[in-house]
Amino acid sequence: MVSKIERDHTRFRQIVRGKIKKELKRYITQGELIGKKGKDLISIPLPQIDIPRFRYETRKTGGVGQGEGEPGTSIGGDGEANGSSGAGNLPGEHILEVDISMDELAAILGEELELPRIEPRGKKNITAQRDKYAGIRSTGPETLRVFKRTYKEALRRQLAQGSYDPTDPVIIPVRDDKRYRSWKTHTTPESNAAIIYMMDVSGSMGDEQKEIVRIESFWIDTWLRSQYKGIQIRYIIHDAVAREVDQHSFYHTRQSGGTKISSAYKYASKLIREVYPPTEWNIYAFHFSDGDNWSGGDTNECIELLRQEILPHCNLVCYGQVESPYGSGQFIKDLREHFRDSEPLVVSEIKDKDGIYDSIKEFLGKGR
Questions:
Q1: Which domain of life is it from (predicted)?
Q2: Helix and strand element counts for the chain (H, E)
Q3: Which of 29, 137, 241, 247 has its CA 20 to 30 A from that of 161?
């Protein structure tokens, strides 16, 4: 039996879910959720969800339909709440913050962007324990009580005792009649994934470009974490040389100097070779740059690194080119020329924050 408050709560969650889906593109492009992310929950700012009702005018001039006025006169045309100067006496509109789980947010993202579920290919050699309901027993918590089996036991007992009256079929279970679901713990292998983020931090990549990368990476993380039980994330920054950093440094480091993209690809290849063997890991590589590379020779080296050492070992390799007034934008053209319809490479141009939504769909829409 579902209580009224449970039905109301379910209905409220459905309304909230609908509003989040409706405004998802705005949430993605503005990046306003990232700062409110907790370990398992995230706060979603929504307009106040209110129940429609009559609101009576504050001046005591009588009841409904009384006072001066002609047919067609607008209601509240000269009211006190029409934005006049001075302090008002009516409440304003409020923002409601609703906490939802990261799994639920990922589900909404997948539904709205029509993302296919990922089929893992690598199996890390770890196991996880899961409880699976496997039978019925006579003891247990009330939350696991099986009403149908309890009813049958009570009916069987009353029939055996001769206390069952067909003209008044009242079944009253006693303690010995109650039956509960039982479970067994099963050990199963889990699929793990490694995400390797690479970003150009040369002088041509400004704060606006890094903010775009930060927002897009948050949503990529959210989706991939919903697909895998274990995620490891590595961050590589590069200008003319590459090095591994923590998350904060990844999004806030800015350096001057040239850009040598092959340095990042060499470091990523080393990680894959030494830390994340593709037979055990599902590997995802994301590279963000403004497309300005040091030379055509280095671009050719990047092409070979991708073809020989990175693409064959990754589930997905994505290159996002963030538009910058200082970058040439040539690198994405070179990738398209050398890897026409080549999986698992996906490229995307991100002109501004409004382009994040489509870029995420391009990257994750392959279901790899």
A1: Bacteria
A2: 10, 10
A3: 137
DSSP designation for 34: G
* Selection from 28, 324, 29 nearest residue 204 by Cα: 324
* Closest among 199, 191, 320, 348 to 259, alpha carbons compared: 199
185 vs 69: CA distance, rounded Å:
75
pLDDT of residue 119: 67
Contact of 297 with 338, CB cutoff 8 Å: no
Give the CA diameter of the chain: 94
Minimum mean pLDDT among 80-84, 95-99, 156-160, 189-193: which range? 80-84
Dist CA 45 CA 23 (whole Å) = 10
Single out the residue of 197, 310, 183, 302 nearest to residue 246, CA to CA: 197
Taking alpha carbons only, the member of 221, 187, 208 closest to residue 254 is: 208
Say which residue the tokens 């998802």 belong to.
24
Q: For the chain, what are the domain ranges?
A: 1-51+95-114, 127-187, 192-364
Q: Please, are residues 81 and 59 in contact by the beta-carbon 8 Å criterion?
A: no
For residue 20, report the phi and psi dihedrals to the nearest 5 degrees: -65, -45
Judged by average pLDDT, the poorest of 35-39, 103-107, 189-193, 202-206 is: 35-39
Please give the share of the chain, as a percent, with pLDDT higher than 90: 24
At position 89, the amino acid (one-letter code) is N
**pTM beyond 0.85:** no
Reported confidence tier of residue 359, pLDDT bands at 50, 70, 90: very high
Q: Which residue has the tokens 């870029």?
A: 359
What residues pair up with 288 in beta bridges, in sequence order? Answer: 199, 320
Query: Please, which residues have CB within 8 angstroms of residue 22's CB and are 6 or more apart in sequence?
Result: none
